[in-house]
Amino acid sequence: MGLKTLKNKRGEGYIFPCLMIVVVCMILSVLIFFASGVSLVRITEKNSKIVLDSYVMQNSIQIYNSIKQGNDYTETLDRNDYIVALCDFCSLVKIGSYLYAYNDDGSLKYRMTLPVITFREENTLKIQLSYTLYVPIWFDGRIARYAVISVTVQSSFKEKF
Hints:
The chain is an alpha+beta fold. Helices cover 45% and strands 29% of the residues. The protein has one domain. Strands 1, 2, 3, 4, 5 and 6 form a six-stranded antiparallel sheet that branches.
């Protein structure tokens, strides 16, 4: 009689631990995706700021002279120069109205809209850059959805007399 009861309940003791392992793995994968997404956003934000600061420094004399003459230099900010510098610095590929970053295996790392450069204040060297970052959420080797993050980067050139 004792053997029959053991044979019938042999696998029942493993169901709960298996379910707990699956739940813990799902929670860990969400946390890892969130951490990698936050890290990716911070890296792209820092890279954009580095290139924007370089852009401001390279064009500071022309921008400053234009501001001294009463122009805000808005019309002559060359966004294409910034985009080329950003693509070179971050190894991005420009296709249409997006910039793409790929992993070493050729899979999509993220894509971003072309940055929009504006002045935060008129007649100053305070520049703001904004774009939207699309981070793919992969499932079964395919992109299931995109996490959409708006990013704003600011740079300014301060006069010292």
